TrEMBL record:
InterPro entries assigned: Bact_Kbp (IPR052196), LysM (IPR018392), LysM_dom_sf (IPR036779)
Protein name per the record: LysM peptidoglycan-binding domain-containing protein
Keyword tags: Membrane, Transmembrane, Transmembrane helix
UniProt key word Transmembrane helix: yes
PANTHER family attached to this UniProt entry: PHAGE-LIKE ELEMENT PBSX PROTEIN XKDP, POTASSIUM BINDING PROTEIN KBP
Species this chain originates from: Candidatus Anaerostipes avistercoris
Regions that span the bilayer: 225-245
Length: 383
């Protein structure tokens, strides 16, 4: 005896269903489809619908009891391909979760494009979901619209309304549980990758800071060692110069020591500057350091120009002083001692050689060659 088919009693009506074709969709399914449509991350979302078609009280009633997400409908309808591999995956999912149901149609969410059909949508339906009673559910969450279309009379006909019914649906519950678990696993995996990326960035930053600190320590040690070596060299060279100058009266001890110290100082400065240029990457230099270097160069240039002017002025002054007194006596000249002068330097200036220092010393009855002072007037014998 054939069991009489009954319509669900616990239902909610959407719109104004009319005619002899009615669509009933289970509450779990419609909730899942609406949630899928609310995903703003992609332009197009889709699903495959499972259910059955029955004749009840001379009406064609379509029951939609399950749905799975259509992975090939995630990006754009132009890229939706229902080839053998896609259908194989669809039927594997159907056999796992909805073994007693058939593919009854599909669902499509297009954000901001309303629920009107176009030729592309119709072509996809006719090629992949042919047959009387196959449905298309369209939803536009942005416009808050949805509609059911049923294939009838060689075309997709829009339904004026549909019914949502409530009953126990373990098949759909099992699918949602597994899907949510996969989503959580995917999110956990993404979180893990994000944490690894953050950890890598932090590790690289720490390594960069550590390298900078080590470079600074090396430069500090190099400065200390170089300074100590320079001091030792000054002592050794100074002692040697003093020894030889003491035995050679033609050598100016003070001038030699000053020149040696200046030469070694410049060498130390060049060494430290060269080390800093080789160890410090250009990307670690700051604008403040660049400005400081520019200011130092400007000061050095200004000092050089000033020193040049001073030396020129002193030479002019000395020449003028010598020329002024040279005409007063026929057999000798008078020279006014300036700061830093020695008998050797005066001999070089007046005669062009150091050998006349002894003559100047004897002409002025100077017992010690260093006993001259600024402002003192010396007799310079004519050669």
């Amino acid at each position: 005896m054939k069991t009489e088919q009954q319509l669900p009693k616990n239902i909610r009506q959407i719109g104004s269903p009319a005619g002899h074709t009615k669509v009933y969709i289970e509450d779990y399914v419609i909730t899942f489809l609406n949630a899928l449509a609310m995903d703003h991350n992609t332009f197009v979302r889709g699903a495959i619908l499972f259910g059955e078609k029955k004749n009840i009280n001379q009406d064609t009633v379509i029951f939609i009891r399950g749905a799975i997400e259509g992975q090939n409908l995630e990006l754009d309808l132009d890229e939706a391909v229902f080839d053998d591999a896609v259908w194989r995956e669809i039927y594997q999912q159907k056999d796992r979760f909805f073994p007693d149901l058939e593919v009854i149609g599909w669902a499509l969410s297009r954000m901001g494009f309303s629920v009107r059909l176009n030729d592309k949508i119709k072509k996809t339906h006719f090629e992949n979901f042919p047959g009387e009673g196959k449905v298309l559910y369209m939803v536009d969450h942005l416009e808050q619209e949805d509609a059911f279309y049923v294939y009838r009379g060689q075309d997709l006909v829009r339904q004026n309304g549909y019914y949502i019914y409530y009953e126990r649906n373990p098949m759909m519950q099992d699918y949602l549980v597994e899907r949510n678990q996969k989503i959580r696993e995917a999110q956990s995996y993404e979180n893990m990758l994000e944490a690894k990326r953050d950890e890598k960035v932090i590790r690289q930053f720490r390594e960069k800071i550590s390298k900078t600190a080590k470079a600074n320590n090396r430069r500090g040690m190099l400065r200390k060692v170089t300074s100590a070596a320079a001091a030792a060299m000054v002592v050794v060279v100074g002692g040697s110069v003093y020894y030889y100058a003491k035995n050679d009266t033609t050598v100016n001890l003070r001038d030699m020591v000053r020149g040696a110290v200046q030469t070694m100082g410049n060498g130390v400065k060049d060494q430290i500057s060269s080390d800093e240029d080789s160890e410090i990457p250009a990307t670690l230099e700051t604008e403040a350091e660049t400005e400081e270097t520019t200011e130092e160069k400007a000061e050095t240039t200004a000092g050089t120009e000033t020193g040049t002017e001073d030396d020129s002025s002193e030479r002019t002054e000395a020449s003028s002083s010598t020329e002024a007194v040279s005409g007063n006596t026929g057999s000798s000249q008078t020279y006014t001692v300036r700061r830093g002068d020695t008998l050797v330097s005066i001999s070089v200036r007046m005669y062009g050689t150091q050998k006349k220092a002894e003559d100047i010393k004897n002409a002025n009855n100077i017992e010690n060659g260093d006993r001259i002072y600024p402002g003192q007037k010396l007799v310079i014998p004519n050669s």
